[in-house]
Design goal:
The protein is built from 13 helices and no strands. By secondary structure, the chain is mainly alpha-helical. The chain has a single domain, classed as MetI-like fold (Orthogonal Bundle).
Amino acid sequence: MKRKKWHLRIIGVIGILLALLWLSPFYLMIVNAFKTKRDIFADTLGLPGEFTSDNFLQAFEQLDFLRTLFNSLLISAVSVGIIIVFSAMAAYALSRNKSKMSSVIFFVFVAAMLIPFQSVMIPLISQFGQFGMLNRAGLIFMYLGFGCSLSIFLYHGTLKGIPQSLDEAATIDGANRFQVFWYIIFPLLKPMSITVGILNVIWIWNDYLLPSLVLGEAGTETIPLKLFYFFGQYTKQWHLALAGLTLSIIPVIIAYFFAQKQIIKGISDGAVK
C-alpha cells in the first residue's frame, strides 16, 4: 500500500511539473504582453512592475484586428466546413465500394499524407497564379486538397463500424444514394466530424506559410500574417507581438468555452478504440 501511495505521489508530482512546463509559454506571453519593450529585456520572467494596456491598444490598431479576425474566421470556417463535407462523402463512397479501384484511390489519399507541402509549393503557386486564384478562394481550395487526405482516412475507419444494412434499409424505403448519406450516415459521423474539425481548425488558424504565398492583396491577411509585421529586419517589437498573440487566442478561448461539451463528447466518441 505504501509503495502504491508513493507511486501515485511521484506520478502526481511529474504531472504537475509537466503541466507547469506546458503552461510556461502562456505565462511568458501574457505577462510580457503587459510590459514595455524595455521591461521585457530587463526581466523576461518576472511580473511587470507596472501593468500597461497601451500594448493591446497599439497592437489592435496596427493589426487592423477586426478585419484580420474576420479574414481568419472566414477562411478557417469555410475551409473546415468544405473539408468535413467532401471528405465524409469521399470516405463514404470508398468504404461502400469494395472494388480494387476503390482500394487504390484510398491508398493514394493515404500516401498523399506523406508528401511534404514544400515539395509542391512552387509548382502549386505557379499554377494557381496562372488561373488568377492567388486569393482567399484559392487558399480555401488548397486547404481542401491538403486537408482531405487525413480526414478521409479518419472517416474511412469510422465508416467501417457503421453497418451497411442501414444503407439497404433506407434504399428500400425509397431514399437515393445522396439521401442515404446526408440523412442517415452523415449524422452518425458527428463525433468524428468534430474531431476532424478540431484538427483542421488548429492547423488552418495557425498556418503562416501557405497564406503568405497566396494572400498578396492588402486587407486579406490572416492573423499569423499580420503578426509577422511586428518582426522587422533590424528590430522586433516583442511587446506588440505578444499583445497581438494574446488578442488572437481570445476568440479561440471564447469558442471553446461555448462549445466545450460538444468538443469533449466529440473527441471521446470519435477516439480510436
